[in-house]
Amino acid sequence: MLSFAVFSCKKAPLKTVAVAASEISQEANSSTLKITPISHATAVLSFNKEVVYLDPTGGAKAFSNFEKPTYVVITDIHGDHMDLKTLEALDLKETKIIAPQAVADKIKAIKALEIIVINNDEEKFFATFKLTAIPMYNLREEALKFHSKGRGNGYVFTINEERIYFSGDTEDIPEMRALKNIDKAFVCMNLPYTMVVESAADAVLAFKPKQVFPYHYRGTNGLSDVAKFKEIVNKKNPTIEVVQLNWYPNRK
Questions:
Q1: Taking the domains of the chain in order of start, what are their residue ranges?
Q2: Is 176 in contact with 153 (CB distance < 8 Å)?
Q3: SS3 of residue 88 by DSSP
Q4: What span, in angstroms and rounded, lies between the C-alpha atoms of 62 and 223?
Q5: What angle do CA 105, 106, 112 make, to 5 degrees?
Q6: Nearest alpha-carbon partner for 137 in 156, 157, 120, 122
Q7: Which contacts of 64-72 are long-range, i.e. CB under 8 A and separated by 24 or more positions?
Q8: Measured distance between the N- and C-terminal CA atoms of the chain, rounded to whole angstroms
């Protein structure tokens, strides 16, 4: 279903993760917000008559069950986040694309209604939501080549007074640990590109979201142990709800 370019977040063989079937669901819902996982880092947010495609990949077919997007939000330049073939395949004539400058520089030929640049620590207000760009980058010396500080964005969406964080590709950076009043947090965890589950769990325990959703957890050696992530978080703070969505529906 999905094709990923060989950049810093490469496709890797999949392996089974020990997660109970009862923990796998298809959507994260609030009163007027629905978040549907597509795969890996790709999701669709539906709310207030808005349809947001986050890091769309997988071609137009991956979004055949959804309405056309009012917004596309992109975190970084790598192929599992900024997929030019998917952007070209989608009908974006009435869509605004929101992205960091590094992405905007690479998608100038995309036929969209508008390309809106937002960089680290900036926030922009739209008719029905606010978007804040959070830094995303690597800390480990051996991983600095993957995600440099200032290039890509994580995001906090404020929708109907609910704050939803998508980490993008990052390690457990101070900016993540300093987040406040997060209702839903989508946190990456895959090596060698982002961080191990222990680091992801430690960061989550620092900023204490109400709910946390492991996502973007495929690395070079398969899928990260998200069950272990849940165990670490809930052992130290059982009030944080760890929710497992099905980000890899075609895994074997």
A1: 24-245
A2: no
A3: helix
A4: 21
A5: 90
A6: 120
A7: 66/36, 68/92, 68/94, 68/95, 69/44, 69/95, 70/94, 70/95, 70/96, 71/95, 71/96, 71/97, 71/98, 71/126, 72/96, 72/97, 72/98, 72/112
A8: 14
- 3-class DSSP assignment, residue 64: coil
Tokens of 173: 């950076």
- Calculate ∠ Cα 55-46-205, nearest 5°: 65
Whether domain 24-245 has CATH 3.40.140.10: no
Provide the token pair at 216.
Answer: 């973007």
User: Whose structure tokens read 């809106």?
Assistant: 116
DSSP state of 68: P
Q: Which amino acid is at 20?
A: A
Question: Coil, helix or strand for 106?
Answer: coil
Measure the CA–CA gap between 59 and 211, rounded to whole angstroms. Answer: 30
Q: For each successive 10 residues of the chain (252 residues), what is the average pLDDT?
A: 37 39 51 90 95 97 97 93 96 98 96 97 96 91 73 96 95 96 96 89 98 92 93 98 92 60
Instruction: Indicate the pTM of the whole model.
Output: 0.88
pLDDT digit string (tens) for 159-210? Answer: 999 999 999 999 999 999 999 999 999 999 988 888 899 999 999 999 999 9
